[in-house]
Design a protein that fits this description.
Elements (H helix, E strand, L loop, with lengths): L2 E5 L3 H12 L3 E5 L3 H8 L10 H10 L3 E4 L2 H5 L4 E4 L14 H13 L4 E5 L7 H12 L7 E5 L9 H6 L4 E5 L2 H11 L6 E4 L1 H32 L3 H9 L20 H14 L5 H25 L6 E5 L14 H11 L3 E5 L4 H7 L4 E2 L3 H5 L4 E4 L11 H7 L4 E4 L6 H7 L2 E3 L14
Parallel strand pairs: 1-2, 1-4, 2-3, 4-5, 5-6, 7-8, 9-10, 9-12, 10-11, 12-13, 13-14
Antiparallel strand pairs: 6-7
Helix pairs in contact: 1-3, 5-6, 9-11, 9-12, 12-13
The structure holds uridine-5'-diphosphate-glucuronic acid.
Amino acid sequence: MSKICVVGTGYVGLVTGTCFADLGNEVTCLDVDNERIQKLINGEMPIYEPGLEQLVLQNTRSGRLTFTTDYPKALQNAEYAFIAVGTPSGTDGEADLQYVRSAAEAIADNVDWPIIVINKSTVPVGTGDWVSEVISQRRSGHPLQFNVVSNPEFLREGSAISDFMNPDRVVLGSLQKEAAEKVSSLYQPLRCTIMITDLRTAEMIKYASNAFLATRISFINEIANICESLGADVNEVARGMGYDKRIGPSFLDAGLGWGGSCFPKDVKALEHMAVLHGTQPQLLQAVMEINRNQRRRVVMKLRKALGSLNEKTIGVLGLAFKPNTDDIRESPALEIIHLLQNEGAHIKAYDPQAMTNASKVLPKVKLCETAYQVAEDADALLLATHWNEFKQLDFSRIFKIMRQPVLLDGRNLWDAEPLRALGFKYIGVGRAVNGTFHEEE
Ligand code: UGA
């Protein structure tokens, strides 16, 4: 059993701390946000993440997991301090490191025994060295014995706990191999591949992984757009590609493009780092441009289907950036809603989990309680997030209550043929049937 402090109770910090407690360690999670910590102490989750609430409750009851805003208390006797704070995008796409600095300084101010500081936040390459400098400078008079290890996270929102417990790999980067090996002992119970490398390489693995996944999605979206001109079906194309073991089937779902708190921020930050150091990241720039266009194309398709968007009512199903989360950061749905509103459309919307978050940023959207309320009197229905509950809707009922039977399936969730048989104009992303491009009807 090890004594661990986790600084930051966002997705990464909270999931990491809770899972380490579940593996038998004594974990204190710290956040400077008092309201958030009070909620956690009362068993209320600040985010929606399947399985998290139960795991937090189990581990707080067992006494292995505690929450505090008090640094001295959180760090007391800690052998490991994980930094898992936010690194928002600055004005030029660079990662803003002010929270990482505060965490590093607080560790320097409150520890007087050997400690390993582990960076879990996604930070620019070179930040591990910078954290070392911040701590050393702070302790210049009375040096602290510490090592910095980079341990990038590969958790997906919506499946973060199972991703933590069943990782494809754990990456640990440090200039002191023994420190990385010590951290690896925390992950031993997971019996997974552990890769030890130098600090900067570990930091780069994180950016390269996210940028590669975003590239796959932009690639398949570009192929989808080509499919639309040539009369092929991108779902089948992706399936046919995915059987090739060198390609694999994951992250080839065409749709509205990638969003969330990670890909947009990380691809931009990688581009920024490259440009800053004299490299022209042409592929990354194209990947971002394709992603932006994917949202504009949906608006274009709706405009085409309805003649004009002015004074039309568009129903939007799903607001979260993907299913199984209440996170709306950089959600394609939100940007599309703004584009539609700019053309005079009225918007109704529903999401199974993201309504509270959405209500804060979408004052002009009529938020509904069910998918059917959204469909009522709508000129078109846009599926923006493929939640399970949208899979099996009663489309005969929807056909009757819509003003115009136009369905834009932004995630290729529905079977086109039965919907067309019911009388809907079905528009997907890169989907044609028997070489016929129905969207051009
Ligand atoms: C992503 C990575 O998958 C994690 O490995 C990483 O740890 C995390 O970022 C992070 O850096 O913290 P996440 O943002 O939770 O995780 O979501 P993903 O499941 O990767 O989806 C990202 C976006 O891509 C979503 O908008 C999703 O709808 C979209 N997507 C995903 C597609 O459009 N098509 C696909 O085939 C897959």
